[in-house]
Amino acid sequence: MKLIVIAGPPSAGKTAVVRQIVRNLQATAAIAYLKIDVVRAFEDEELRKEFGIPARKVYSGDLCPDHAGIMVMRDAIAWAAGEGADILIVESAGLCLRCSPYLTQSLGIVVISAVSGTHAPLKMGPMIALADVAVVTRIDLVSQAEKEVFRERILEVAPGIEIVETNALQGTGMRYLIRRIEETGDIEDEDTIEVRGVPPLGVCTICVGKKEIGWQRHFGVVRKLDGADWIFRGE
Amino acid sequence: MYPEITEITVLPGRDKNGMQETFDRIVIRPGETLSIVGPTGSGKSALIGDIEIFAREDTATGRTVLVNGGMPPEDLVRDPSKKPVALITQNTKCLADLSVQEFLSMHVRSRRIEREGIVAETIALANEFTGEEITAGARMTALSGGQTRSLMVADAITIGNTPIIILDEVENAGIFKHRVIETLRAYGKAVIFVTHDPLVSLMCDRRIVMRNGTVAKIIERDGEEEKALAAIRKMDGILSALRERIRAGESITEAAFAS
């Protein structure tokens, strides 16, 4: 099974990119989808309804969403394998630019909107720097010159990154992303999957830099994939 | 900088009902001007979209666009600094929170251009297209629609140096369309206008008529429309003069039509 992790700031078009991936690959691969969000998310219901794929979500509530993602990842891989999936797509909430949710043995995709401003890529650090592919959305709304400048900014942060420009609603240019997914290898050994970057310093097991995935290997506030229906209501 | 682009070819796809398009192929060469006309929703934007991204049966229309008769090399399609097409749309906005000078300098850097004075040259050229002066220190986000478009056309000519320029309804938002057309011709660019403007469309070598998502007709300029073009030029001159007088706050009386 292939693992694909999609990150990017809110409203960048992550789910539109997921839709295009499913639309393009559904005929040849069984796809499972997991959305990680903080408070409310609807993407799982929408994708299940639209494509009939196994889809679920996990709310991080009082945890940071990347923390929640790391906690549930082993469960999620087991769940997707149990569903017979060839590809598991994990979409992050995309809130923290300091953490980045990309894992080893997976394809890391960052989605950035072309209209988010010239400096946006510079502000996003690890979320761009540790990804394999940057998908730039809403490319139809900016000028040629701005496209070039935006691309240059992304390359400043991540010189080796592959850039795919798209109008994700229509799926233009997505053939390059689809090809990259097709070329991505399966998970080799799920016991050795790690977070690519070192998480920030802090007090929780993730925040102090424990890179193992799965709640079994952590202590303190843990979260399983099942029973994730707590909603964060603030202090 | 580019492999020489000798032609761009559009191969047919399907109309809105999924029927095969009836044209054989549309070939566009540097120095040619082409207009795309048709009612709203007839497929004009989809056609220029196909050309802009070099469709390969992967857009809603199913068309394919070739460069020099073959599939374009991948970096020519994917790297915008190598792409031979610049599209300037009617909703081209510049969201970069930078001054004109900074933005153009950044574009120059991204293209690894070392010629001095190119930024000033671009601004000067843009100012030939628009009546409202663009200054180097102005914020990009504060430019009007006409200024932004004028600057983007100038940028595509000088910094981008793209052989093909697509202008989507350039006639809107106060831009001197004559001067744009003449300048683009002088620079040997292939230019595609999406337009509702009689003058712009009649000035072009060919006119593609869109209907129901498909190319319905291609009209070659064969001289029969010359008289009409001359008449429209005259009318356009009158209207332009009127526009300037209204802008200047004059009252328009019968005498205004005499010239």
TrEMBL record, chain A:
InterPro entries: AAA+_ATPase, CobW/HypB/UreG_nucleotide-bd, Hyd_mat_HypB, P-loop_NTPase. Pfam families: cobW. GO terms for molecular function: GTPase activity; nickel cation binding; zinc ion binding. SMART domains: AAA. Residues 1-140 form the AAA+ ATPase domain. One of its GO terms (biological process) is protein maturation. This is Cobalamin biosynthesis protein. It comes from Methanofollis tationis. The lineage of its organism: Archaea, Methanobacteriati, Methanobacteriota, Stenosarchaea group, Methanomicrobia.
Automatic annotation (TrEMBL), chain B:
Residues 5-237 form the ABC transporter domain. InterPro entries: AAA+_ATPase (IPR003593), ABC_transporter-like_ATP-bd (IPR003439), P-loop_NTPase (IPR027417). Keywords: ATP-binding, Nucleotide-binding, Transport. The keyword Repressor does not apply. GO terms for molecular function: ATP binding; ATP hydrolysis activity. The keyword Transport applies. Belongs to the ABC transporter superfamily. PANTHER family: OSMOPROTECTANT IMPORT ATP-BINDING PROTEIN OSMV. This is ATP-binding cassette domain-containing protein. The lineage of its organism: Archaea, Methanobacteriati, Methanobacteriota, Stenosarchaea group, Methanomicrobia.
